[in-house]
Specification:
The complex is a heterotrimer. By secondary structure, chain A is α+β, with helices and mostly antiparallel strands. Helices cover about 25% and strands about 35% of the residues of chain A. In chain A, strands 6-7-8-3-9-10 form a six-stranded mixed beta sheet, sandwiched between helices. Chain A has a five-stranded antiparallel beta sheet with strand order 13-12-11-14-20. In chain A, strand 12 and strand 13 form a beta hairpin. In chain A, helix 3 packs across helix 4 and helix 3 packs parallel to helix 5. The two termini of chain A are about 35 Å apart. Chain B starts with a helix and ends with a helix. Chain B has a two-stranded antiparallel ribbon. Chain B is mostly helical. The relative contact order of chain B is 0.13. Chain B is globular. Chain C folds into two domains: about 180 residues, Periplasmic binding protein-like II (D-Maltodextrin-Binding Protein, domain 2), CATH 3.40.190.10; about 160 residues, Periplasmic binding protein-like II (D-Maltodextrin-Binding Protein, domain 2). Chain C contains 17 helices and ten strands. Classes of the chains: A alpha+beta, B mainly alpha, C alpha/beta. Chains in contact: A-B, B-C.
Chain lengths: ~375, ~300, ~350
C-alpha cells in the first residue's frame, strides 16, 4: 500500500469525493458557516471538531440538505447538491438524539429507508437481518426503541443510517449520549464498521479525544471557519495556531520575539521568562516578529539537578502534583510567575526520587520538541 | 414528625380530585341513577320515592319500566343512533379542518404560535349563543350566503341551508373546533423535529413523512381531540334546536321532551343514564390513548 | 301562552332570586306586562320587585315541581295550573286580602274553576285563543276569493296548504294545542282523550307536514311581520304583535288573526302563589294591585291580550274591545273549548305522536 492510497489527500491527482467550495450560511447577521472549502476523499473518516457555536453542526446539516447555502457549493461524487432535497441525496445521517421512530420496531426503523426505495420485501428483510447482525442486535428486531438501552439505540440509529448504503454517512455527535466506558468501546466498533462498509464518514464532535481516535483527518472549526485540516497526529504535533494547539490537548505557550533567524535554527527572546529559547530547525519568520513556542507537557523533562544542556532549561518550584495512574501531572511556577504544565510517565512502580511539593526543579526539552506558531 | 405532616399534606392534595369527582360527578350520577328507577307522578317533585319506611318494613320499589320503555319504542334507539352519526361526522369534519390548523401552528415559529393559538380560542370570547345566532343570519333563506350566491348569479332560488342536518353539523364543527385543535396541537408540538428530518433523510418525501411518521405519532392527539368534540356533540341540544330542522332527531332533544313536555323525570333520567353508558366507551378509549402516549413520551 | 324552549333554558339557569321582607319576586312570561305596572306597584306599596321572565310553561313547571324556586308570583297557563295544583305546588289564596276580586268577570272565573275548583289558588291574568295568523295579500294572491280564511282548512286541508308552501307555513311547537285543533277540524271532540282521536289528528297533521316550513312557538312573530311566512298557527296576542310590527315597519304587510269557525282553544294565564313563596303577603298585595281596573286595562292596552277583569272593560281601548280576534263574538265564544288536562299516559301519547308528526319516526 502506497502512501497516497492510505492518504489520498497527499496525492495531487486524487479526486475528492466530497468537495465543498466557499460554503457560507448566515443566520441573520451571524455567519454560522463562513466561506468553508474542504475536500474529503472516498473512504475517509473525517471529523469536524469544534466547540459549540463553531458551525460544525450547521455544516453537517448543509451536507444533509436540511439547510441551504447562502453561497458556495457542495459536490458529492461529482454531483452538485444545489437544490437537491434531503430525500434525494445519496447521504444519510445519524442524529445526535438518534431520532428513532418511537412507534416502529427496531427492524421497521432499519427498514424505513429501504421501504421508501420500494425494494422487494425479501431483499429488505435480508438487508435488515444483515445490519442487525452487524450491530449485534439480531435478538432485538421486534423491540420498540423505548425498550432498548442507550447503547443499543445508538447502534440501531447507525444501522438505520447505513441501511441504504449511502455514499456519505453524516454522524452528529454519534457517541455524545453514551457514558465514557461505552463511548470508548463504541469508538472502535464505529471504526470497524466504517472499514467494513467502506462508506465515507463525516463525524461532528466536540470531543477532541474522540476525534483523535476515530479520524483519518480532522477539520478544526472556529467561528464558522475551518482553521486547520490535518491528520490527528499533525494536528497534535504541528498545530498551525495557538487556538488549535490549545484546543487539542494541553499546551504550554511561551511568547517571544525572534532574535536569531538561521537556516536551521532560530531563537526566541522571551521577556516574560527572562531568557531566550532555542529552536533547532528553521522557521519562516523575520527578525523582531512576535511568535509563540508551543510545548506539550509530555515533551518536558523534570530533574532536580541542573541538566547538562546549555539552553532550553528553566528553573521553577513545584506547586501541584496530580497522580493520574499512567502518568503524573505537575504544575511548576517559574520565577517570572508563569506556570508550566508537565506530564511525566510513571515508568516504575516505586520512584526512588519522587519530586515533591515546593521543591525546586529544572525543566528542559530538546531543540525540536516545540512548535513555533506565528499566531 | 414533619414527614408525617408532609405525607398527610400529600394525601390531602391527592384527595382534591377525588372529592371533586365525588361531589360533581358521582353524587349527581347516583341521584340520576336513583331517579331513573323511580316512577313518575303528579307530585312535588314529580316522582315517587324509591324507598319507604312503614313501621318495621323498608319497602324499596325499583321501576325498570323506564329502561324497558327506551327499548320498546324505536324512537330512542333511532335518536341515539342519529346523535352518534351526527357527532361522528362532526368529529371527523373537525379533524379534517383542525389537523392542518394544528399542524401549521405547531410548525410555526415559536413567537407566532401564541398569536395563532389565541386566534383559535378567540371565538370563545363572544357568547356561544350569539355565534350560533349569527349562523342563522348567514344560513337563512334570505340570509347572507344565499343573497351572495343569488347576487353572483350562481343560483336562482335560495338554497335550504338552515334547519338541515348540514347546518347542525356546521354549527357543531364551528363551535367545537378549538377542542380538537388544542390537544392535537399539544401533541404535534411535542414531536421531535429530528424525527421528520430523519424520515426525509432516509428518502421519504414530505407526504410520505407525514403518512409514516407524523400521522401515526399524532394518533393520541387526534383521538383526544375527536373525543372532546364527539362526547359533547352526542348530547348537544342547543345547536340542533337552533340550526336543526323539526326532523333533526337528537338525544338531547328527546331528553328535553321527556323532562319538560312529558314531565317524566324518571324516563328522562333513564335516557341520561343510557347516554352516559354510550359515552363511557369513548372516554375509556381516550384514557387508553393517553396511557399509550405517555409510554411514547 | 308562548313557548321558546331555548330562551327558557337560559332563564331556567338563572339563579333564583334572594327574597327579603320588603321584596317581591315575580316570574312572568316575557313581554307580558305594561311598561309602568311594576313602577306603580312599588310606588303604591313600597315593596321592591324582582321581575324575571320565562318563555315556556314547561320551564315554569320544572321549577315549580322541583320546589324552592324563590318566587312569590308565577303565571301558569290553566291546564298547567291544574296539574301543578294537584302536585301541591300552590298555596290557597287568602281572599280576605283580595278585595279587588269583585272586579273579575264571573263567567270567566267560572271557566277557570274548571281547572281550579272554587278558584281557590289562582285568578285570571290574561286570556286568549290559539288560532290562525295570516298575510292577507299573500293568501289572496294564491287562493283568491275562495280562501278559507275563516276555517282550520287554511292550515289543515292538504290541497290548500300545498298552495301556500312556497310563501311559508308555520305551526306552534305545542302538541297539546295542535292535536286538539286537528281533531276539531275533523269533527272530533277536541277535549277527547281517546287514543284513536289523537291518532286521527296526528294523521291529519302528517298529511300537511310536507308543506310546513317549521314548528316553532315564537319565530313566527317576526317572520309573519316581515312576510317570511304567510300563515301561522299561533297565539292571538302574538299575531297582533306581528301585525303591530308590520305596521310600524310600514313594509306593506297586512297581518290578520282569525278564530276559526270550527272553534279554537281558549286558555287562561293565571296568577298564583307557590306553596313555598318567601313573601306570600306581598304576593297577595300584588295580585290585588293587578286586579285594579285601571292597572289591568293598562296591561291589556299594552299587550293586546284580553283580560278577565269586568271592571276594566270601560278603560280598555275601543280598538281592542271591538276586535273579534281578541274579544270573540258570542257566536265564536260558543265554539271555544277549554284545554283538556291529560294524565301521564295521555301526555306521553300526545308527545310521541307529535314527535312522529315532526320527524316521521
Amino acid at each position: 500500500m502506497t502512501e497516497s492510497d492510505d492518504q489520498p489527500w497527499r496525492d495531487p491527482n486524487a479526486q475528492p469525493f466530497l468537495r465543498i467550495k466557499g460554503l457560507s450560511k448566515h443566520f441573520g447577521s451571524v455567519a454560522a458557516v463562513d466561506k468553508v472549502s474542504l475536500d474529503i476523499y472516498r473512504g475517509e473518516l473525517f471529523c469536524l471538531l469544534g466547540g459549540s457555536g463553531s458551525g460544525k453542526s450547521t455544516l453537517l446539516r448543509m451536507l444533509a440538505g436540511f439547510e441551504s447555502a447562502n453561497a458556495g457549493s457542495i459536490e458529492i461524487d461529482g454531483q452538485d447538491m444545489a437544490g437537491v432535497p434531503p430525500y434525494r441525496r445519496p447521504v444519510n445521517m445519524m442524529f445526535q438524539s438518534y431520532a428513532l421512530f418511537p412507534h416502529m420496531t427496531v427492524a421497521d426503523n432499519i427498514a424505513y429507508g429501504l421501504r421508501r426505495d420500494r425494494l422487494p420485501r425479501a431483499d429488505i428483510a435480508k438487508r435488515v437481518d444483515h445490519l442487525l447482525a452487524m450491530v449485534q442486535l439480531a435478538d432485538f428486531a421486534k423491540r420498540k426503541p423505548s425498550q432498548l438501552s442507550g447503547g443499543q439505540r445508538q447502534r440501531v440509529a447507525l444501522a438505520r443510517a447505513l441501511a441504504k448504503g449511502p455514499k456519505l454517512l453524516l454522524l452528529d455527535e454519534p457517541l455524545g449520549a453514551l457514558d465514557k466506558k461505552l463511548r470508548e468501546e463504541t469508538q472502535f466498533e464505529l471504526m470497524n464498521i466504517q472499514e467494513e462498509t467502506g462508506v465515507t464518514f463525516v463525524v461532528v464532535t466536540h470531543d477532541q479525544e474522540e476525534a483523535m481516535t476515530l479520524a483519518t483527518r480532522i477539520g478544526v472549526m472556529r467561528d464558522g471557519e475551518i482553521v486547520q485540516v490535518a491528520t490527528p497526529r499533525e494536528v497534535y504535533e504541528y498545530p498551525n495556531s495557538r487556538f488549535v494547539a490549545d484546543f487539542i490537548g494541553s499546551v504550554n505557550l511561551f511568547e517571544g520575539v525572534v532574535s536569531e533567524d538561521g537556516e536551521s535554527h532560530m531563537r526566541l527572546d522571551c521577556a516574560g521568562l527572562g531568557t531566550s529559547l532555542y529552536v533547532g530547525h528553521g522557521v519562516s519568520c523575520t527578525l523582531g516578529q512576535r511568535m509563540w513556542l508551543a510545548l506539550r507537557p509530555e515533551k518536558l523533562r523534570v530533574s532536580t539537578e541542573k541538566p547538562a544542556q546549555s539552553h532550553n532549561v528553566l528553573q521553577g518550584v513545584v506547586e501541584e502534583i496530580a497522580y493520574m495512574g499512567g502518568s503524573s501531572m505537575l504544575r511548576v511556577r517559574l520565577p517570572s510567575g508563569a506556570q508550566v504544565q508537565v506530564t511525566q510517565a510513571n515508568l516504575d512502580r516505586d520512584d526512588a526520587h519522587p519530586v515533591s511539593w515546593d521543591e525546586t526543579v529544572f525543566l528542559s526539552w530538546s531543540d525540536t520538541a516545540g512548535v513555533v506558531l506565528p499566531s | 414528625m414533619t414527614q408525617g405532616v408532609v405525607a398527610r399534606g400529600r394525601a390531602w392534595v391527592a384527595a382534591v380530585p377525588g372529592i371533586w369527582l365525588l361531589v360533581f360527578f358521582l353524587l349527581p350520577f347516583l341521584v340520576v341513577a336513583k331517579l331513573s328507577l323511580s316512577e313518575a307522578a303528579i307530585a312535588r317533585p314529580p316522582y315517587l320515592p324509591l324507598w319507604e319506611w312503614d313501621e318495621d318494613y323498608l319497602t324499596i320499589t325499583l321501576n325498570l319500566g323506564n329502561y324497558r320503555y327506551l327499548i320498546e319504542d324505536a324512537l330512542y334507539i333511532n335518536a341515539f343512533l342519529e346523535s352518534l352519526r351526527i357527532a361522528s361526522v362532526s368529529a371527523l369534519m373537525c379533524l379534517l379542518i383542525g389537523y392542518p390548523m394544528a399542524w401549521c401552528i405547531a410548525r410555526a415559529r415559536p413567537e407566532r404560535r401564541n398569536v395563532l393559538l389565541t386566534l383559535v380560542i378567540l371565538p370563545f370570547w363572544t357568547s356561544f349563543l350569539l355565534r350560533v345566532y349569527a349562523w342563522i343570519g348567514l344560513l337563512k333563506p334570505n340570509g347572507v350566503i344565499n343573497n351572495m350566491l343569488i347576487g353572483a348569479g350562481l343560483i336562482d332560488q335560495p338554497l335550504t341551508l338552515l334547519q338541515t342536518d348540514f347546518a347542525v353539523i356546521l354549527g357543531i364543527v364551528y363551535t367545537y373546533l378549538p377542542f380538537l385543535v388544542l390537544p392535537l396541537y399539544a401533541n404535534l408540538v411535542k414531536l421531535d423535529g429530528a424525527l421528520f428530518e430523519a424520515a426525509e433523510d432516509l428518502g421519504a418525501q414530505p407526504w410520505q413523512t407525514f403518512l409514516t411518521v407524523t400521522l401515526p405519532l399524532s394518533v393520541p392527539g387526534m383521538l383526544a381531540g375527536c373525543l372532546l368534540v364527539f362526547i359533547p356533540a352526542v348530547g348537544e341540544f342547543v345547536i340542533p334546536a337552533l340550526l336543526g330542522g323539526a326532523d333533526t332527531l337528537m338525544i338531547g332533544k328527546v331528553l328535553w321532551t321527556e323532562f319538560f313536555n312529558n314531565r317524566d323525570w324518571p324516563v328522562a333520567s333513564a335516557v341520561a343514564m343510557v347516554m352516559l353508558v354510550v359515552l363511557v366507551l369513548p372516554i375509556m378509549l381516550l384514557r387508553n390513548a393517553q396511557n399509550s402516549s405517555e409510554e411514547l413520551a | 301562552m308562548k313557548q321558546l324552549p331555548l330562551a327558557a333554558l337560559i332563564a331556567a339557569s338563572c339563579v333564583a332570586p334572594i327574597a327579603s321582607a320588603e321584596t317581591l319576586n315575580v316570574y312572568n312570561w316575557s313581554d307580558y306586562i305594561a311598561e309602568d305596572t311594576i313602577e306603580k306597584f312599588t310606588a303604591a306599596t313600597g315593596i321592591e320587585v324582582n321581575y324575571d321572565v320565562y318563555d315556556s310553561n314547561e320551564v315554569l313547571e320544572a321549577k315549580m315541581l322541583a320546589g324552592n324556586s324563590g318566587y312569590d308570583i308565577v303565571v301558569p297557563t290553566s291546564d298547567f295550573l291544574q296539574r301543578q295544583i294537584s302536585a301541591g305546588a300552590y298555596q290557597p289564596l287568602d281572599k280576605s286580602k283580595l278585595p279587588n276580586l269583585a272586579n273579575m268577570d264571573a263567567a270567566l272565573m267560572e271557566g277557570l274553576a274548571g281547572y281550579d275548583a272554587g278558584n281557590e289558588h289562582a285568578v285570571i291574568y290574561m286570556w286568549g285563543t290559539t288560532g290562525i295568523g295570516y298575510n292577507v295579500d299573500m293568501i289572496n294572491e294564491r287562493l283568491g276569493d275562495d280562501a278559507p280564511t275563516d276555517s282550520w282548512a287554511l292550515v289543515f286541508d292538504p290541497d290548500v296548504v300545498a298552495k301556500l308552501a312556497d310563501c311559508g307555513v308555520s305551526m306552534l311547537d305545542a302538541p297539546t294545542e295542535l292535536l286538539p285543533a286537528a281533531m276539531n277540524y275533523l269533527g272530533l271532540d277536541p277535549r277527547s282523550t281517546d287514543k284513536k282521536d289523537f291518532e286521527a289528528g296526528a294523521e291529519l297533521l302528517m298529511s300537511v307536514r310536507p308543506h310546513v316550513r317549521y314548528y316553532h312557538s315564537s319565530q313566527y312573530i317576526s317572520d309573519l311581520a316581515n312576510g317570511d311566512v304567510c300563515v301561522s298557527v299561533g297565539w292571538s296576542g302574538d299575531v297582533f304583535q306581528a301585525r303591530d310590527r308590520a305596521d310600524e315597519a310600514e313594509n306593506g304587510v297586512a297581518v290578520s288573526y282569525v278564530i276559526p269557525k270550527e272553534g279554537a282553544l281558549q286558555w287562561f294565564d293565571t296568577m298564583a302563589i307557590p306553596v313555598d313563596a318567601p313573601n306570600p303577603d306581598a304576593a297577595h298585595k300584588f295580585i290585588d294591585f293587578v286586579m285594579d281596573a285601571q292597572i289591568t286595562a293598562d296591561i291589556t292596552n299594552y299587550v293586546w291580550y284580553a283580560n278577565g277583569n269586568a271592571a276594566s272593560m270601560p278603560l280598555v281601548d275601543e280598538e281592542i274591545t271591538s276586535d273579534p280576534g281578541i274579544f270573540p263574538t258570542d257566536a265564536a265564544k260558543a265554539n271555544l273549548w277549554a284545554s283538556q288536562v291529560y294524565n301521564a299516559r295521555q301526555d306521553r301519547n300526545v308527545t310521541r305522536l307529535w314527535t312522529k308528526v315532526k320527524t316521521g319516526q
